[in-house]
Each structure stands twice: as structure tokens, then as C-alpha cells.
Specification:
The protein has four domains: 34 residues; 88 residues, Beta Complex (RNA Polymerase Alpha Subunit, Chain A, domain 2); 94 residues, RNA Polymerase Alpha Subunit, Chain A, domain 2 (Beta Complex); 88 residues, YbbR-like domain (RNA Polymerase Alpha Subunit, Chain A, domain 2, Beta Complex). Helices cover 16% and strands 51% of the residues. The strands form four sheets. Strands 1, 2, 3, 4, 5, 6, 7, 10, 11, 13 and 14 form an eleven-stranded mixed sheet that branches. Strands 8, 9, 12 and 15 form a four-stranded antiparallel sheet that branches. The radius of gyration is 46 Å and the shape is rod-shaped. The N and C termini lie far apart (173 Å). 15% of the residues are buried.
């Protein structure tokens, strides 16, 4: 009986073997067509481990591409699962001191999510690492106005609290910081700034130094704009009332000084072309009249110098008809 079974199995064996091989080929073909091998590239953040306390590492590059290869459906499933996750490429800095190093990537966080059919490979095998000690410095905080002020406005002295802040980070970055500044933008529509403003660490060229920690990270700033007084030189206009005694007449009226500088809000100053004096009465005069009088100054306007001027009225004999 056993011999008979073996004989039946071995009968037509070339055909049976061919059918088996064909089935394998067809299965592989179907898989290749319906679920072909594919590669999708994702980005991984380079992470460090084993770094000594009190030191910081700068990485170049700090992100690398990762190629995920395998059957299309499995690769797409892996990529979809990692969309909301932080994919990391780890490097081990254990035992490394300060200076520049070339460190190989030790592992990928995505490896644990892969099946036997899916492989992940970084586009680069190593990254450049610079290890520096963490240092700190304390610097004063300066207040800067972001844009040029409108004409006719000036900024008062600002107050900032605290007056100093401490920066910390990689030694080279901390050394590049030249000043700490807070930027404000008062305007005529918002002349008073009274708020907390972020503190920016700047280098010698005024560019912000990223990668350093500033403590505190904001300062309370108070600064106020005031409208600068407008100034203008205007003529003095003497005012005279009455008439000299007949047959005398007025030959000339003059003020000394002839002009004066007025100062005040621009909307008032721009409307002033002359300033009148107090009235000088020359009724019945038979000789020159010289009198010190006050200027008539509008409210809100200041005079540079004295408000008193001399009005001179020259009287001469008239020629009768």
C-alpha cells in the first residue's frame, strides 16, 4: 500500500513540480502587482543620549531623512502611524568631551514599529557634533523703539524692570551676545506703553542669537511719547489807538524787537503769523511816544525771551492845506 502511494505521488512528477513553480510565480506576481515594494522618505529629529551634565551638543544636521522600504501597504501603514509622532534618530555621546566629533547613528525610534518585511535606513550614517560647556552671563536690558517716531513727537525716559537678565547656553553662543534689548512701538494713537515685552539676546550686528536661554524672558517696560512743541518766528504787530493833536500826525510805528519766537502745540503755532501788542494810546500826542507793553499771547503758547516789547510811535508836524 505504501509503495503504491509513493508511486502515485511520483507519477507525473515533472508536471506537478512545474505546477508548483508556476503557482509560486503567479503568487509572487500577484503580490508584486497588488502590493509592490515601495520606499517612502520621512524626516527624523536627531536626538542625543549619554551627554555629560553641564554640557550642550550642537548637531549638524539636526534632522535627517529616513527611507522606509517594504510592501506598499505595510510601508504606508507605518508612515501613517508615525505622522503624529516624533521620529528620532539617536546618537550616543557617552564618554565624549568638549570639541568636534563625528558620531554614528546608533538606532531609530521607528525600528520597533517595523515588521520583518519593512526596513528603515537613515540617509546619512553619522552627524557632526560640537560639545561645549554651558555658561551664563548677566547683562543690562536696554529699551529700543522699533520704528522712527512721527515728526513732532519725542519719547520720554523709559523704565524697565528688571534692569538685568541672565543668559545661559553653549559657551560660543553666550559669548556672541552683546546686549539684551526689548523692543516697543509707541505711536501718537498709543503714546503710552506699559506692558511686559520679550527680551531678545542680540549679537554685535543686531541679529537675534537663537539657542540661548534668557531668564527672565520678559521685562516690564513703561515709556511715554509726548508731542514736541512746535516753534516759529513771527512778526510783532504794534497796536495803536487815538490820534495826535492837530496838526501832528503819525509818521511811523515800530516794535523792538521786530520778531519773536513762539512755541507750543503745532495746531496752534501753525495758525500764528503775527503777535499783537497791547494797545498804545497816542491821543493828543505832540511828540514821539515810546512805551513798553506786553505781547498778546494766545493760551497754550510760550514766548522765547521776554513778553515785553518796546513800541515806538514817531510823531511829526503835519503839513496843513
Amino acid at each position: 500500500m505504501t509503495a503504491m502511494r509513493i508511486k502515485n505521488i511520483l507519477s507525473n512528477w515533472p508536471y506537478k513540480l512545474g505546477a508548483f513553480v508556476l503557482a509560486v510565480i503567479l503568487t509572487s506576481y500577484v503580490h508584486a502587482v497588488l502590493n509592490p515594494e515601495t520606499t517612502i522618505t520621512i524626516t527624523a529629529q536627531v536626538r542625543t543620549e549619554g551627554l555629560k551634565e553641564g554640557y550642550v551638543a550642537s548637531l549638524s544636521p539636526n534632522k535627517i531623512p529616513i527611507s522606509v522600504t517594504g510592501p506598499k501597504t505595510e510601508v504606508e501603514a507605518v508612515v501613517e502611524e508615525t505622522r503624529t509622532q516624533d521620529i528620532a534618530a539617536w546618537i550616543d555621546l557617552k564618554g565624549l568631551g568638549t570639541g568636534k566629533h563625528e558620531v554614528k547613528i546608533s538606532r531609530l525610534s521607528i525600528d520597533e514599529k517595523l515588521s520583518e518585511n519593512v526596513k528603515a535606513a537613515p540617509a546619512v550614517s553619522s552627524v557632526k557634533v560640537t560639545i561645549e560647556p554651558i555658561v551664563s552671563r548677566t547683562l543690562p536690558i536696554t529699551v529700543k523703539i522699533s520704528t522712527a517716531l512721527d515728526v513732532g513727537w519725542t519719547a520720554g525716559n523709559p523704565t524697565v524692570e528688571p534692569s538685568k537678565a541672565t543668559i545661559s547656553g553653549a559657551e560660543s553662543l553666550v559669548a556672541s551676545v552683546r546686549r539684551l534689548s526689548v523692543y516697543v512701538m509707541p505711536t501718537p494713537e498709543k503714546p503710552l506703553i506699559d506692558e511686559y515685552v520679550p527680551i531678545r539676546a542680540l549679537d554685535a550686528g543686531g541679529a537675534e542669537v537663537l539657542g540661548v536661554r534668557v531668564v527672565p524672558d520678559a521685562a516690564h517696560v513703561v515709556i511715554k511719547l509726548t508731542e514736541s512743541p512746535a516753534t516759529r518766528t513771527v512778526y510783532i504787530s504794534p497796536r495803536v489807538t487815538g490820534h495826535p493833536q492837530y496838526p501832528y500826525r503819525v509818521a511811523d510805528v515800530a516794535a523792538s524787537p521786530e520778531t519773536v519766537v513762539v512755541k507750543g502745540p503745532s495746531e496752534i503755532i501753525n495758525k500764528i503769523s503775527t503777535l499783537d501788542t497791547e494797545v498804545v494810546d497816542i491821543s493828543g500826542a505832540v511828540q514821539n511816544v515810546v512805551k513798553k507793553v506786553n505781547l498778546s499771547v494766545p493760551s497754550g503758547v510760550e514766548i522765547e525771551g521776554s513778553r515785553r516789547v518796546t513800541v515806538s510811535v514817531r510823531i511829526e508836524m503835519g503839513t496843513g492845506n
